[in-house]
Amino acid sequence: MLSETENMMSWILSWFEKTSLNYELSLFLSRIIILAFILLLAVIADYICRYFINTVVHRIVKSTKAKWDDVLFDRKLLNKLALTVPAVMIYFLIPLAFPEQPVALSWILKFCAVYIIAVVLRFFNSFLNILLELTNRKEKLKDRPIKGLFQTLQVLIFFVGTILIISVIVDKSPLSLFAGLGASAAILMLVFKDTIMGFVSGIQLSANDMLRPGDWISVPKHGANGRVIEVTLNTVKIRNFDNTIVTVPPYALVSDSFQNWRGMEESDGRRIKRAVHIDMNSVRFCTPEMLERFCRLDGVREYVADKEASSPQIRLTNLGLFRAYLDRYIRQLPECNEELIILVRYLEAADKGLPLEIYFFTKKKEWALYETLQADVLDHILAVIPEFDLRVFQSPSGADFRFLTNA
Questions:
Q1: Does 5 have pLDDT greater than 50?
Q2: Measuring CA to CA, how many Å separate 34 from each of 25, 108, 111, 149, 324?
Q3: Could you tell me if residue 116 is left (phi over 0), alpha (psi between -120 and 50 degrees) or otherwise beta?
Q4: Cα separation of 215 and 197, whole Å?
Q5: How high is the pLDDT of residue 325?
Q6: How far apart are CA 319 and CA 342, in angstroms?
Q7: Beta pairing partners, 240
Q8: Rounded mean pLDDT of 6-33?
Q9: pLDDT tens-digit map of 114-133
């Protein structure tokens, strides 16, 4: 390189000898000409690379059936990598312009090296973002919380790139800098504690399929009850049903418990489980007049006929007929999934009466439709209870005491 530089400089200086310029000015102009020639070569190399990418590579990409190469080309990923070509040419050719100025040459070479490293880092960062986008398009992977893994790779790449840039600036080997970092590993672990814990937790959440974007989860400890909108390296973003955003650290979901409603949404129905407390003082055996009146309701006549045929010695009660009526009413609901459990049962009696619980699954799993159906069923139950000469138990209120006082 030194001999080539001397030959080029001597050739240019011999050309300037034919003029009336002195030696110092001739030397300065020679360096300017060489520098301009190097920059011109860098511009030409950049133009050739871009032309090759925009013509040849573009034709190859459009001729393939794959879609991933179209994404890479549309995001101009190769154009970002092509920025290194003129910098590399300048890096190797710039000594021709500054052969006798080692200090200036050293700083120019450092600047070129730092620029090349920065461009390569930008290329890999864009490549990982595109790879994440392509991964999210796959049906098997789009619901996986893999964004944290890509963010970890980006942090690692930028960490290595930063070490390389520092090594270029201070003229030290990157290996010596990495070895020096071993002594401060404890400090680094303290600084990047949340990042490390988030990375490990993200792997656990993904490997065990505990969480996906779009899942409805409940984390009462952090006030979260809504849809997961994003899973990153350090946070899990949850949009509550009041449109507030809650951020929860990933390791909190691993160390503490949370409720994921995905199983319910993927199942055949959503459970309705509600109890009405019956005043036990209103429970009595049915008289013939009561049976005649109750049998006018749907389903009661068939139940009475079956009981009288199978067990004529058993006396029927108004509560038993009400339970049979509710069972038939629930089974006739269009939204009821009869392939799952349907129960109308008694719970343990207490000082607040006898709890009569309905237990079934509805085909409507959307929150608003589910709540509407549940309210309609409870409305019907409360309205039909007096038809069976039953009363709902409730604690006395102030209005009850005023009624007794006036009486």
A1: no
A2: 14, 15, 19, 48, 101
A3: alpha
A4: 22
A5: 92
A6: 18
A7: 226
A8: 60
A9: 888 888 888 888 888 888 87
